[in-house]
TrEMBL record:
Domain Isopropylmalate dehydrogenase-like positions: 6-353
Pathway where this protein functions: Amino-acid biosynthesis; L-leucine biosynthesis; L-leucine from 3-methyl-2-oxobutanoate: step 3/4
Protein's UniProt name: 3-isopropylmalate dehydrogenase
List of residues binding NAD(+): 78-91, 282-294
The keyword Oxidoreductase belongs to this UniProt entry's keyword annotation: yes
Keyword terms: Amino-acid biosynthesis, Branched-chain amino acid biosynthesis, Cytoplasm, Leucine biosynthesis, Magnesium, Manganese, Metal-binding, NAD, Oxidoreductase
Pfam families: Iso_dh
This protein's encoding gene: leuB
Organism: Paenibacillus etheri
Top-level enzyme category: oxidoreductase
Family under the similarity heading: Belongs to the isocitrate and isopropylmalate dehydrogenases family. LeuB type 1 subfamily.
UniProt GO MF annotations: 3-isopropylmalate dehydrogenase activity; magnesium ion binding; NAD binding
E.C. number: 1.1.1.85
One Gene Ontology CC term in the entry: cytosol
Cofactor binding mode and count: Binds 1 Mg(2+) or Mn(2+) ion per subunit.
Length: 360
């Protein structure tokens, strides 16, 4: 039996608790199969924390996360809190936890499973071989710059400020080069350097660091062009590194290459092995409570946790293989089902993945 590791579990809102429950089943199965020992501690966060504690990110939730080795998060947000003031929004809690835990690097792999090519809105031949990683800067840029409302010449105005310093760009770009070096040695740096000063700084930093990684081929792509190229030639991308907001948008776009945003996992990391793992999708209020959400993004996020925080490659690979096996066998939640009448539920998908892990 290995040393007990601690995982903070945050279910959140909407489909968050539904998909996290399935990931916890997988956690339990992998503990038993591989002999790992985890202590999980649940914490309140997001809209439910606003309702129960008057703040989206209670101090004790942050403490539970800080004292853990990793965090598993579902999703937060929903219409109930959409008209709240900024401080009382679930999304403010999400930005707060990322900042407080120093998670500046958000890794969002988008891999097209062969058997799911028919689930995407794109032609199968365009998707062939698509396996990319969006490396999104997560604690800077327009998300965190000063915001204000004021009276201007034409009445009320709103201001969002986008700021990046060299240190913030260097650390994420370095991580992206390192990741590209372990993959196919291709890095696309995405910016809007034809317009934005922050993007010109970003590009200067990439060009300054590039000679340290001569084996990595660097391509600068303007973000509007990148949005288009992702649909035109997705398989040509390996690692995409970009700032916070561009990464948010491009990763949702990349999700559709895989068939559904319900397939896209993510890891939010700092300098070390500590990480927060969550699906790329949100709380999906339109399907919450129906038991039909796809839990695979959250389950694959758990696999990323095993790999990146704990170095348990056997369990990570077993989860990924189990997901592939279940999909190959034709099982689909409704978001990836071509014939929706045959779609299975969230918990059926979780159970099938657990069964595949146990029998492997
Ligand atoms: N990390 C997070 O917690 C996070 C991420 C994105 C959005 N949000 C929040 O979630 C709320 C809803 O946002 P949205 O509707 O723009 O995005 P969303 O990702 O929640 O949903 C977009 C669409 O994708 C579908 N979808 C998402 N996840 C799915 C899954 N696992 N299985 C099947 N279908 C799935 C939804 O049903 C919806 O039609 C908002 O409050 C937003 O702020 C939170
Ligand atoms: C909910 C929102 C604040 C968040 C973001 O924009 O970072 C989400 O869209 C994501 O992709 O994690
Ligand atoms: Mg997003």
């Amino acid at each position: 039996m290995s040393e007990v590791k601690k995982i903070a579990v945050i279910a959140g809102d909407g489909i968050g608790p539904e998909v996290v429950a399935e990931a916890e089943k997988v956690l339990k199965a992998t503990e038993e199969v591989f002999g790992y020992a985890f202590k999980t501690e649940h914490a309140l966060f997001g809209g439910i924390a606003i309702d129960e504690r008057g703040t989206p990110l209670p101090e004790d939730t942050l403490e539970i996360c800080r004292s853990a080795d990793a965090v598993l998060l579902g999703a937060v947000g929903g219409p109930k809190w959409d008209n709240n003031s900024k401080e009382l929004r679930p999304e403010t809690g999400l930005l707060g936890i990322r900042k407080a835990l120093g998670l500046f690097s958000n890794l969002r792999p988008a891999v097209v499973f062969d058997c799911l090519k028919d689930a995407s809105t794109l032609k199968p031949e365009v998707l062939e071989g698509t396996d990319l990683m969006v490396v999104r800067e997560l604690t800077g840029g327009i998300y965190f710059g000063d915001k204000l409302r004021r009276q201007g010449e034409h009445g009320e105005e709103a201001v969002d400020t986008c700021v990046y310093n060299v240190m913030e760009v260097e650390r994420i770009v370095r991580q992206a080069f390192e990741i590209a070096g372990k993959r196919r040695n291709k890095l696309a740096s995405v910016d809007k350097a034809n317009v934005l000063e922050t993007s010109r700084l970003w590009r200067e930093v990439v060009n300054k660091i590039a000679p340290e990684y001569p084996e990595v081929e660097v391509e600068h792509v303007l973000v509007d062009n990148c949005a288009m190229q992702l649909l035109r030639r997705p398989a040509s991308f390996d690692v995409i590194v970009t700032e916070n907001m561009f990464g948010d948008i491009l990763s949702d776009e990349a999700a559709m290459l895989t068939g559904s945003i319900g397939m896209l996992a993510s890891a939010s990391m700092g300098d070390g092995n500590y990480g927060l793992y969550e699906p790329v999708h949100g709380s999906a209020p339109d399907i919450a409570g129906q038991g039909i959400a796809n839990p695979i993004a959250t389950i694959l996020s758990l696999a990323l946790m095993y790999r990146l925080t704990f170095g348990y490659e056997d369990a990570a690979a077993a989860i990924e293989a189990a997901v592939a096996e279940v999909l190959d066998a034709g099982h689909r939640t409704s978001d990836i089902a071509v014939d929706k009448s045959k779609a299975i539920s969230t918990s059926e998908m979780g159970d099938l993945i657990v069964a595949a892990i146990r029998k492997a």
